[in-house]
Design brief:
alpha+beta; two-stranded parallel ribbon; 6 helices
Length: 173
């Protein structure tokens, strides 16, 4: 979904710049260092400023104010000396992710694929520690997330390890 939105943004920026300034540029999109700065950022105004011999921030403000509404993009803001920061419509983004996930979990006969999650249980032949609890919680969390997204999930966890631990118990007895 992220790739779809960034491609849509890249194409819209290229069209808008071509229509407004008559310049064709390769649009570069990066991830900003902080999520507060948006989900995608473009330094395209710096390249455009060289060609138009104008300030990059001024060009960025012109583009941001006249940029058309794009599906999945909530807003476009100017940052720093002339970056264009795009903020996704997060509700639409997560709805799209959920739709994609449910589409991918279906197999060719219209049946839903079964997902098997194998995660560990505490070995009763050893002392329990926080790592055992962490692994059980992570496995259970993964199962709950998959089920919440509509997947058919089967849990497999192995109660006992009949390896060296059992031999140690027998010898100890």
């Amino acid at each position: 979904m992220y790739q779809k939105l960034t491609n849509r943004l890249r194409d819209a920026l290229a069209r808008h710049i071509h229509e407004k300034y008559g310049v064709e540029l390769a649009i570069v999109l990066e991830r900003p260092p902080k999520i507060e700065m948006g989900e995608a950022a473009s330094p395209v105004c710096f390249e455009l400023a060289k060609r138009l011999k104008r300030a990059p921030r001024q060009i960025a403000q012109e583009i941001a104010s006249s940029f058309p509404k794009i599906e999945g993009i909530a807003k476009l803001e100017v940052a720093g000396g002339g970056y264009l920061n795009a903020f996704f419509d997060r509700a639409a983004f997560w709805a799209g992710v959920r739709t994609e996930a449910s589409d991918e979990s279906r197999v060719a006969g219209g049946r839903q694929a079964k997902i098997i999650v194998e995660h560990t249980s505490i070995n009763p032949n050893k002392a329990a520690h926080i790592g055992h609890v962490r692994n059980a919680v992570l496995g259970d969390t993964m199962v709950r997330i998959l089920r919440h997204t509509g997947n058919r999930v089967q849990i497999q966890n192995y109660i006992d390890n009949t390896g060296v631990q059992v031999a140690d118990v027998v010898i100890g007895w």
